[in-house]
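Handout, section B. The chain below has 583 residues.
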Amino acid sequence: MTELEKYTLKRWGTALIIGLFSILLLYLNLLSPLMPGDDYLYSLKIPSDHYLGDQPIQSLRDYFESQVNHFYNYNYRVLPHAILQAILLLPPWLFDILNTMVFLALPAIIMRGTKVTRANYLPWYAMILLFLWIFHFDLGRSYFWTTGALNYSWILIPQLLYIHILLDHNSQNGRGQSKLLIFLALLIMMTNEQVVLSLFAVTIWIFINRLIKEKKVAVPVLTAGLILLCGGLIMYYSSSMQFRLEREGFNYETNSARWIEYLRRVTYYFISYASVGLILFFHGWTKSRFVDKTVYLISIVLLSMLAMSQAPLFEPRSAIFGFVVLLMATVQITDLNKISGLFFGVLILVSGFLFAERVPLFQEVSSRHEHNIRILEDKRGSQDSVYLDRFCSSYKYQCLICDDITDDPSYMDNEPVAAYYGIEHLVLKPEASLKHQSQKILLDFERGTTASYHRAKVSSKKLTDYIELIACHYSEGENLNMAIELKTSQNLDEHIVILRGSRKGINRYLLYDLIPRNWRLYFLDYLEYNAPINKLENKYLASHTVFEPNRYRYYLISLYNLNNHAPVGKAVRIEIPTNNNGQ
């Protein structure tokens, strides 16, 4: 086989992989429905006196009034939500196509400015595409969720382009792109707070650096920096900022508790970021380019993470920007003349495995959603209470967005769906409600009707120095009901018991067994119902229900401090016999 034939085969093979990936990604987007909560809220016109409307947008005037009301009443991120409300007026499949194109565009933007040859461009594009698919640690909330996609994926494109143009301007390669730099600054000036802050800091850093070196004012860079500053100040002093802090803010017992939780999350994100090191491990780096752009890019990552120390909670979706910028920095210094066949092959195999794992999950959510939509359409305009089944399973995945309504009609996810369909009260069916199941378990123990419960095997009787685990009881059946008995002289009003599950089969959960239990809590499936711990005579009782227990090998429980928003004490392993676990 000649070199030309090898090149042609490699090129067409890579194009086939990208094509198959694109089709499967589009399929998952088509399966992803609107989620209860913000997706339905933004499908309606936001009124002048509240954030939740009850009328559709019917004119261009309605649309612009909704944007103004949104800024004052609900959220200060202007551009993402303006695009979102426009998108929600169009057929859903159009968003799915555009969202697929956004993900496909990210590798090209990440690779912008690299010295990759034409022959190697397509393989490197494919590797970065598959790398994002595998190691992106919050696809559910920052990509597949309609509202999250606009805030954390679509807006990445102008944010990353701004970084490229800014750094090109600094190296004198982008002096002709001054207008584009200013235009991008206008686009991103009122987007994610930590991004605006970190980009403002680096923009001013570059401005001062050039002022010292060149003895002249870089007007475009200064203008871009001032635009970002104005955007940040407008967001900070907006009335919706105060509203958001009241709605989403978290209060900690002490500042040290706040910093401990922040540092714990930063550690988790740095572990997630470490995956970019695989690219350098397999391909090496070009030392001559190590300082070119890299210092600024890493500074942006660190500044964006530091800025989140002032947020109520550093959520994974807010860490995605840093992950992508660090990936961009890694690609900038990687020797792109090399292509590791082993690395590429492993990426292809793992991506295929993930599609095989994720497609059924998306199909299940889509099926549940279609079932509930039929109920909602049938009951549209009803003045009676409307009951829905669960939108979600009892488990959660980072790749899958699924928010459920509750049995409280005033809950933040219930109200927008009810308003969209003109329903007076929308609630979850009692048999699908974790709260209802929890109350049934509590009633069993209050009445002493616990003959159907068995004792599970536990790894330890000690949760903390002052809190003892007396027993973990469970009942057989289609669902798994768990009652956790605790003994302590302390007040547990500010605590709950969290429950995490490790899934059966040969999968990544086997790797999680290698890390300490307290760290494992962050990686296993989140199964808990955030119910208060109840006091029964001289003991405390926490209850949980797992709707599909046949999925799990074992469970971990831990105390969780609601004031400090963090697990406390030891994580305890719960073993439940398979023949009693819903099978």
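Note. The domain at 434-580 is CATH 2.60.40 (Immunoglobulin-like). Compare this with the example in section A.
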